[in-house]
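A reminder from the course coordinator: this example appears on the midterm review sheet, so study it carefully.

Given structure:
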């Protein structure tokens, strides 16, 4: 019924003003719902030495010495060559039993109103502060991978990491440059500040959708335009909107119809674990859809790689509608227009460990 009305309207548009007018109408609607990614990385509040902090944050992001056992780095799970994720089915540092949730991308995460599938960290700095890459024993059965371990359980692990960084002369100098006013700059708060500042540079402006929003008619194909019209018309944009087409609010997974237990395992209550409210059971952060074609697997459970299946599940679970295969295909084509060029990263050179005494032979 609704669909028939939409197609009659678009037919009228075509008859009255031609396709150009129809496209302008769609663009006006889209501009009210979405914003392009800004060209320049946002500077986080209170930042005066952004370039030096970004340089330090980049080093820390790639350095496994930031983890208790020196075997995990942020870049291992948030690989910048893989759109900020690991591409693995669930994030397991090493073993399949680790982690309980799918990795979220760090690309464009700076535009999210909260971090993690359950929004338990307010911002990028808080995300690092509230967590540490600690030992596998502590990770077992923790939801959300190593960064999910509660701060209280990790105070000593953090202390070890800071003590280790302090022994590396190259790091002490870089911390001093990034935090010139601090008497003792090598501390976890500054680690978090610097990593957050680096993550804020991991943005992907210039996606075809953004170019179209800014007026480039040729940036989207007719199928992608149809997909966009459906994305708005069917109600996807009611949840997935803003700069990241998500990232700013929460919704129950299964508003209308509960998805299968593979997609929504019953033991992960989502936001309810944070708010302790029963009405938040199975509520999750509406995820960022930027670069979504590159960030499989999908859903907090990481239970499917198939973007077409994801679109079909969303339509039935969140909106109670069954989409035709052509509609699914055009929405998928639209989602692919959200892929932007990867941020250019020159790999940092990490300072070497201080010399240490060689172990003495046994006899
Ligand atoms: C072993 C894998 C692993 C490592 C190492 C890791 N993460 Fe994550 N990260 C995850 C997983 C899994 C999630 C989603 C967890 C959840 O939502 O409960 C996540 C979520 C995040 C998010 C939230 C993004 C969003 O859109 O909400 C940020 C930011 C982040 N990690 C940054 C980091 C930083 C910085 C480091 C290094 C200090 C790091 N991660 C190390 C697996 C990892
Ligand atoms: C009522 C709010 C709501 C509506 C409407 C909605 N979504 Fe979602 N969407 C979500 C939530 C919440 C999730 C996360 C589900 C989970 O894994 O727990 C999600 C997940 C997704 C994902 C997976 C992203 C990832 O990285 O794993 C895609 C793609 C997506 N939605 C597209 C769509 C499309 C297309 C539509 C319209 C057919 C739609 N959504 C309608 C709330 C919504």
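Designed residues:
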């Amino acid at each position: 019924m609704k669909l028939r009305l939409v197609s009659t309207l678009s037919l009228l548009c075509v008859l009255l003003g031609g396709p150009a007018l129809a496209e302008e109408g769609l663009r006006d609607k889209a501009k009210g719902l979405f914003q392009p990614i800004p060209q320049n990385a946002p500077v986080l509040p209170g930042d005066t030495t952004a370039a030096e902090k970004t340089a330090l944050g980049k080093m820390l992001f790639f350095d496994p010495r930031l983890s208790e056992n020196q075997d995990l780095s942020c870049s291992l799970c948030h690989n910048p060559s893989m759109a900020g994720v690991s591409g693995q089915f669930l994030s397991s540092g090493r073993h399949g039993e680790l982690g309980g949730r799918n990795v979220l991308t760090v690309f464009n995460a700076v535009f999210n109103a909260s971090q993690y599938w359950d929004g338990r960290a307010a911002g990028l700095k808080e995300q690092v502060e509230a967590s540490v890459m600690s030992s596998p024993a502590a990770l077992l059965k923790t939801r959300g991978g190593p960064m999910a371990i509660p701060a209280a359980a990790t105070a000593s692990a953090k202390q070890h990491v800071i003590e280790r960084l302090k022994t590396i002369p190259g790091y002490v100098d870089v911390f001093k440059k990034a935090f010139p006013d601090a008497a003792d700059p090598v501390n976890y708060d500054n680690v978090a500040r610097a990593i957050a500042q680096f993550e804020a540079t991991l943005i992907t402006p210039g996606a075809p959708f953004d170019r179209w929003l800014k007026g480039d008619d040729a940036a989207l194909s007719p199928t992608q335009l149809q997909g966009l019209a459906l994305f708005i018309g069917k109600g996807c944009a009611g949840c997935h909107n803003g700069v990241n087409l998500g990232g700013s609010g929460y919704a129950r997974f299964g508003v209308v119809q509960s998805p299968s237990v593979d997609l929504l395992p019953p033991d992960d209550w989502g936001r309810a674990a944070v708010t302790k409210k029963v009405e938040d059971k199975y509520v999750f952060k509406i995820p960022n859809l930027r670069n979504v074609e590159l960030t499989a697997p999908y859903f907090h459970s990481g239970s499917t790689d198939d973007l077409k299946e994801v679109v079909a599940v969303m339509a039935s679970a969140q909106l109670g509608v069954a989409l035709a295969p052509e509609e699914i295909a055009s929405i998928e084509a639209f989602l692919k227009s959200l892929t932007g060029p990867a941020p250019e990263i020159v790999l940092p050179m990490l300072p070497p460990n201080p010399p240490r005494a060689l172990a003495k032979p046994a006899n």
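Confidence is low (pLDDT under 50) at residues 1-16, 91-98, 137-142. The CA atoms of residues 46 and 248 lie 23 Å apart.
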